Structures are given as structure tokens and as C-alpha cells.
Amino acid sequence: MMLATDKWSPMKLDKGLQVGSKGGHGPIKYFVTDYQQDKSITFQFDLTGFNGFHKFELKELETHKTELCHIIDMTTTGSATLKWLLAIRWLHDAYIEDAFDKVENHFTINKKRSEWNLWVRALRKIMRRKQK
Question: Under DSSP, is residue 74 helix (H, G, I), strand (E, B) or coil?
Fold first, then answer.
């Protein structure tokens, strides 16, 4: 799967793309619970207060027409709820938009580039300062 690693930290998995592999990207940690090549991959969150999974699915709708889906089925508890509401959700959504743009741009002539909102730009600036 093509991801937006030119703008975001890349996903790293200790055993590669297979069930049981642990890793994540940035501060978000998870492990692979299901992988069906060319169909889907499911990641279980491995982060205190984040209970659930996120999944990517490819669905063939008809010949030469495929749908790429991203699903989050998660609840949060404690401080994770604040982290999700104030920062992670916004950064995650921007990341997914960039990743989906990259997939779409691979197959189309007119290139798409989703714009980050002011909050995402501010969060990324704060994160860069913390990394220095």
C-alpha cells in the first residue's frame, strides 16, 4: 500500500507485513491481527487508553473499479480521550487524506492534494519543535 511517507513518519513493523508484527508510526503503536494479501490488513492499537483497531480494505466493485476503505473501530479512556480529541484525530485524518491522495494520484492524470487545516499545521509545527 502506498502511504504518505513523504510528509509523515513511515510505518515500521518489526516482522514486516504479517500477523503478529509489532510497530507503528510516530507515537502510535499497534500490531497486525489480520492480513489478507491484496484484500485487507487490520491493526490492533497497542497504546494505553486506545481500545480497538483500524483496518484498510480493498473492495472490487466491478472490473477496473476498486474501493479503498479505512475503518476505525475504537473507544478511548482516560487521557487518551483528550489526546484523541485534541490532536491524534486531526493528525490521523490528515494522514489518511494524504495517503488516499497518493493512491488516487497513482491512477489519475489530475493530481489531488488535500490541504491541511490550520489546527493540523499548528500541531505539526509543535511536534517538529519537540523533536529538535
Answer: strand
Tell whether 104 is covered by a domain. Answer: yes
What separation in angstroms does the CA of 51 have from each of 4, 33, 75, 78? 25, 14, 5, 11
Would you give per-residue pLDDT tens digits along the chain (132 residues)?
Answer: 445 557 888 889 999 999 999 999 878 899 999 999 999 999 999 999 999 999 999 999 999 889 999 999 999 999 999 999 999 999 999 999 999 999 989 888 999 899 999 999 999 998 888 766
Q: Where are the alpha helices (DSSP H) in 8-110?
A: 79-83, 89-107
Q: Give the CA count within 13 Å in the CB-facing half-sphere of 77.
A: 5
For residue 103, give the CATH number of its domain.
Answer: 3.30.530
Q: Which three cell numbers stand for residue 94?
A: 490528515
CB burial of residue 50 (10 Å; 0-12, 13-18, 19+):
buried
The three three-digit cell numbers of residue 30, written as one number:
499497534
pTM for the full predicted model: 0.86
Q: How many domains does the chain have?
A: 1
Q: Is residue 29 part of a domain?
A: yes
